[in-house]
Amino acid sequence: MAAPPAIPxxxxxxGGGWREPTLGRRIPVxxxxxxxxxxxxxxxTAEDVELxxxxxxxxxxxxxxxxxxxxxxxxxxxxxxxxxxxxxISCVSLNLRPExxxxxxxxxxxxxxxxxxxxxxxxxxxxxxxxxxxxETVDSGKPKDEAVADMxxxxxxxxxxxxxxxxxxxxxxxxxSLPMEEFKTYVLKEPIGVxxxxxxxxYPLLMATWKVAPALAAGCTAVLKPSELASLTCLExxxxxxxxxxxxxxxxxxxxxxxxxxxxIASHPHVDKIAFTGSTATGKxxxxxxxxxxxxVSLELGGxxxxxxxxxxxxxxxxxxxxVFGCFFNSGQVCSATSRLLLHExxxxxxxxxxxxxxxxxxxxxxxxxxxxxxxxxSKGQYExxxxxxxxxxxxxxxxxxxxxxxxxxxKGFFIEPTIITDVSTSMQIWREEVFGPVICxxxxxxxxxxxxxxxxxxxxxxxxxxxxxxxxxxxxxxxxHSGIVWINCSQPTLVQAPWGGNKRSGFGRxxxxxxxxxxxSVKQVTRYCxxxxxxxxxxxxxx
Length: 544
Ligand code: NAD
Fold this sequence. Notes:
Blueprint: E1 12-14, E2 17-19, E3 26-31, E4 36-42, H1 46-61, H2 73-84, H3 91-94, H4 98-112, H5 129-140, H6 144-171, E5 174-176, E6 183-191, E7 194-198, H7 204-218, E8 221-225, H8 232-244, E9 251-253, H9 258-266, E10 273-277, H10 280-291, E11 297-300, E12 306-309, H11 316-328, E13 340-344, H12 348-360, H13 380-395, E14 399-402, E15 419-422, H14 429-432, E16 439-445, H15 448-455, E17 460-461, E18 463-467, H16 471-480, E19 485-488, E20 503-504, E21 507-508, H17 513-518, E22 521-529
Helix pairs in contact: 1-9, 2-6, 2-7, 5-6, 6-7, 11-12
The protein binds nicotinamide-adenine-dinucleotide.
C-alpha cells in the first residue's frame, strides 16, 4: 500500500504569497480518528490580520479597481472556473505569471501524449478531489465518502458563482421605471469592498467556499479565517489560487484562534462586511464588534431542527433512513441536523424499533476505511461536550434508547455511537440546546397542531422537515414551520442554487443561490436630471 501523502506545512496566504505568522506561533493538527498529531498550522494574530486586510484593500483598489472590483464579471468568472478546473485556462486572458503559464502548457502536452498527471501541487480542485478529501478526512474525522462529496460540492459552488458573475454584467444599469420624465434612474450593483469571512470546522472547505465563491464573484476581496480545528483544506485553496494566478491579495487566508485571528477581522475598520458561520454565541460577539462600526454582517448560526413524521407513511424504512441521514450524517455535526424527531403516536413504537435497527447497521470505523458511514467527531472538546449532553439528558430523566457511548471496537479516537434519546420533555437541555453530535431526541405527538407547536418550540429557526404521504399536509406544515428551510419527505439536501439560512437565533441573511451573491453586493442608485430648463423650485435671481 502506498504511503499517505505528507501534510503540507504552510504559512499564511497573504498578498498572493506565503508568510510565517508574525509571532511565529503554530497550532498542532490532530487527526480526531487516531488522536495523532499530524502537522501544524500557523496561528495568526492581529499583526497578521493587519497585513491581510492591507493586501485585500490594495487588491480592491488596484488600478482604480479595474483589476478586480470593477473588472467585468466575465473576467472574474474565468478565475472562479479555473479554481474549480472546469475549463482549460486561457493563460493569456488570465494574465498568468509566465512560470504558471508553463505549467499549464506542460500539462496540456502531458495530457496529449498520455503522460502522467501534473504533480499535486499544480492541480486544481476537480483534479485533486481525492487528495483534498483525504486531507479533509484526516483533519476532521468525517467519512472519506462524505469528504469526496464535499469536494464535488466545492467545485460545483465555484462553477455556479462563475455563472452568476458572468450574468452580473447583464444586470448592471438596470433602469428604474419612474412616473416623471425629468429624471432617469438606473441601478449599479457594486462589490461591498473588503470582506471578512469567518467559518466553522464541520465542512471546512465547503463552508469557506459558500462565502469565498460569491464574494469573489461579486468583485469583493477577502480575508478568510477558517476554524483552528480544521484549516488544512482552506490552506490548499490558497495554493490553488496561487497556481491559477489569482491577482495578489484578492483572497487572503489567515489561520488561527478565534479571539486572536477572528476578532481583529470583525473589528477592523477597513473590513467592510463580515460573513460568519458558526455558533450563536460567537455570532453575538461578532455582531457586537461589527456594530461599533455599523458594519454589515450576515450570520449562519446554530440550529435544533425538527423532523415530523406522520402515521400515514406507507414505507417506514424510507422515512427512517431520512431520520438517520438527518441526524447522523457527518456525525450530526451539521447546523441543520434534524435532531428533534417528532413521531405520530400510532407509528412511534414501530418507527423506533426500526430506527434502532438502522442505527446498529451504520458502519462506524476509521473514516478512511471503505464504507465508513460514521467517523469521529472533530475534537476531544467536542467529544466531551457531547458526552456531557448525554449524561445530563439521563440525569434529567430521559432514556438512552440506543448508543450514548464510545463504540466498543474503537479504543482510540473521538468516536460516539449514534444515540437515540426518548422520554424527553420540552424543558430538558437535550430538547432545547444544539448538541452538534450524533444524538437525536424523540417526542411523540397526537395531532397535527401539536406537531407544529412542538416543531416551533425552539429559539432556533434554521430548518425543519415533514414526512407524510399526504402532500397537502406537507405543504400546510411547510408554511407554518418557523425556519429558513423546510424539507418535505427528506432531510438535508443542500442545493447550491437554493437559498440557505435561518430565522430567529439561527441568524439572518441567506447564502447560496443568487441570494449568496447579493450578500456581497451593494446597490447604487444613479439618477440623472435630463431637462434643459431650470428645475424651478427657487426663484431665479435677477441678473443685475
Ligand atoms: P465557533 O463559533 O466556535 O467558531 C466559528 C468560527 O469563529 C471559527 O473560525 C472560530 O475560530 C471563530 N471565532 C471564535 N471566536 C471568535 C471571536 N471572538 N471573534 C471572531 N471569530 C471567532 O463555531 P464552530 O464550533 O466552529 O462551529 C459549530 C457551529 O457552527 C454550530 O453551532 C453550527 O450550528 C454552526 N454552523 C452553522 C451553519 C449554518 O449554515 N447555519 C453551518 C455550519 C455550522
